[in-house]
Structure formats: C-alpha cells, structure tokens
Known about the structure:
By secondary structure, the chain is α/β, with parallel strands linked by helices. The protein has a single domain (8-196), classed as Rossmann fold. It is built from five helices and seven strands; from the N terminus they run ββαββαβαβαβα. It has a seven-stranded mixed beta sheet, sandwiched between helices. β6, α4 (154-168) and β7 form a beta-alpha-beta unit. α1 (37-45) packs across α5 (186-196).
Amino acid sequence: MSAYPAASFLKSAHSPGQFVPDEGMEVAFAGRSNAGKSSALNAIVGRRQFARVSRTPGRTQLVNFFALDDAVTGGRRLVDLPGYGFARVPEAMQRHWRRLMEGYFTDRRALTGLMLVVDSRRGLMDYDRQMLAWAAGARCPVHVLLTKADKLSRGVAARTLAEVRRELEPSAGSVQLFSALARQGVEEARQALEALMPAPDATLATPRPIE
C-alpha cells in the first residue's frame, strides 16, 4: 500500500513560466543521471511507477510536479528535477538545464527542502556540489540519499557515509544510506521528507523572502 495514497502527477514544465503556481510547500528531488532518483521517489511514495525510470540517461530535461496530498492549503508537492552530469548530453541541453535550475532555486518560494540523490559508489561530485550551492543560496535544507548502498560492503558504506557527512557539516545538511532495491532506509527517508515538508496539520512554513 502506498505511503501517500493521494499522491498524483500534476504536470511537466520545460521552462519556469510553466511551473505550477508558487504556493503551498514542495520538496525537490535532484541527482545525477543513473543515480537512482526515480527509483528513490517510487520507494518513498510506495508506488512502483509513480515516477518513470528513464532508460536513456540525460534525455529528459523537464521539471515534473507531483501532488503529495491535498490536506494543506496550497498543497504539498514533490518536484522531480532533471537528471544531470551525463557526458553525452549536448551543450545546448546542458545550458538549458543550468538556466532551468537557476530559475527554480532563485525564484521558487514554495521550496522547503531538497532531497539530493547521490550514487553511494561515487560520492559527491561536482554537479552535486553545484546543487548544494544552489540550495544554500536559496536557504533550502538538504537531505542526501546515498543510493545503491546494497552494492557496498558495510565498511565501505560506513566510510562513504562519514565522508559525505563531514562535507555537509558547514551547511548542516543530513545524509543517509539508501537502497530502493533492498528497501534499505526507506522509512528514514520518509521521515526526512516529512521534516523538510511539515505534516498536513502543521503550520505552513514561512515563504522565503524574495531577495
């Protein structure tokens, strides 16, 4: 059974002008191509095909909006940001991605948190750090999911977790090990999501002031 039975797809946007109205609360999911972002979203929501898993890395450059529930005024949403870092993506598409992300993080007042999906076998890379910098500039709390943790030995997984935690310390971000395949860390990730986007009966977060 889905952890969020009322969750549903809203729309895809190719440009900031196509985003859903900037109200309520939303948590964005971001990550490198093939880091397991869609699989993480599906596991957290508890629905296999909630977010489509692309077979072509870097192909989709859309922002996908999902309603999480309708119990809070303005609604709670999940936002699936385009995957990044795939070497074969044309430069024009890379420029589009940068403009789209800059516009989202600069202007989105409903944004209350970022779930950064990182392949645990790679650790934080340059594009991941760019996402962290954008989130910091937007004063947006971050929770890092170190995905595919089932592919690491316990010792390597523990070292990777400690390394990423140390790198996040200045920004007070949080991090965990995660595996959609092995169902590792799914409940912890849901708790982190709820912390980033308060429960329906909680007071709405104060929107970030426009700089």
